[in-house]
Write a structure and sequence with these properties.
By secondary structure, the protein is of the alpha/beta class. It is built from 13 helices and ten strands. Helix 2 crosses helix 3. It starts with a strand and ends with a helix.
Length: 276
């Protein structure tokens, strides 16, 4: 049986890949087995990956909001838009949780012109410039023009000293982050020129998906017990991660959520973060 990808290309159905994605939600062996059986019953030749996702999400949600939320991470990143400002904040938090000092939304003078820099980070006296490329749909990808353009900006900025975390500093490296994917040409150009890339599935062993799961750094937009409007209100209050709500639930009270719903939301948050 073949399935239709977001690009429109048809590829053979990979049961093991679907099984792995279900396993990463925290679902047990029995639930994974039963889910696969139910999904395969409803599949047909040419079914889209989006339809398969909806089937899996609905099955998981019947059992646990937490499982469904963890299955929802990639879509949750797309909800950190529309312009990607909250995606930049999310990426800043990812690095802060890994021991980096971070600053966001900087305007810095290069050797030739001024530039807006999404994020600057420092650890072990190494200062890195991070540029975020946000895509609001699954179809979007960052091609070779992205690292080519950012390389020129990086070269202009590193030729001059800045006041970032202290005085008289220079950028040592550059990372480009996207919530979707980089094309093969973009990866090859970045590798050749020394720029680092971070996307949903690249690099293979230390990609965005793995960083999120390993650090338990889930965005609040993955929660199924919150409405879209409620998620936006919490993001404005700077509650970016699910664990922010566990550490401090006052934001839920501030946006007018009832005590009973807060209890359900925190229960789902705890399930996602494996605290219960």
């Amino acid at each position: 049986m073949k399935i239709t990808k977001h690009s429109g290309h048809k590829v053979p159905f990979d049961k093991e890949k679907l099984k792995l994605s279900l396993k990463k939600t925290g679902a047990g062996t029995d639930l994974i087995r039963d889910s696969l059986v139910e999904i395969e019953k409803q599949m047909y030749d040419g079914i889209t990956t989006k339809e398969i996702y909806k089937l899996a999400f609905a099955i998981l949600k019947k059992t646990s909001n937490g499982f469904a939320a963890r299955y929802n991470i990639k879509l949750a990143l797309q909800m950190l838009g529309p312009a990607g400002f909250f995606f930049e904040k999310f990426i800043s938090r990812l690095y802060a949780e890994d021991g980096f000092k971070t600053k966001i939304n900087l305007t810095l003078q290069g050797k030739c012109v001024s530039h807006e820099v999404d994020i600057a980070i420092i650890k072990n006296n190494i200062i890195t410039m991070i540029e975020c490329k946000f895509h609001g749909s699954k179809e979007g990808s960052s091609d070779v023009k992205v690292p080519m353009y950012i390389l020129s900006r990086f070269n202009d900025l590193k030729a001059k000293r800045h006041t970032l975390f202290s005085n008289n500093e220079t950028f040592d490296s550059c990372i480009i982050v996207t919530n979707n994917r980089f094309t093969k040409d973009a990866q090859d150009f970045a590798n050749c020129t020394g720029i680092s890339l971070l996307s949903w599935d690249y690099p293979q062993d230390n990609n965005l998906k793995n960083k999120i799961n390993k650090g338990v750094l889930y965005p609040i937009t993955c929660l199924t017990t919150l409405s879209t409007v409620e998620k936006e209100k919490l993001l404005i209050l700077n509650q970016i991660l699910v664990k922010d709500l566990i550490d401090d639930s006052q934001g839920l009270h501030k946006i007018g959520i009832s005590k009973n719903r807060i209890k359900n939301i925190l229960q789902e948050a705890s399930q996602i973060c494996k605290l219960i």
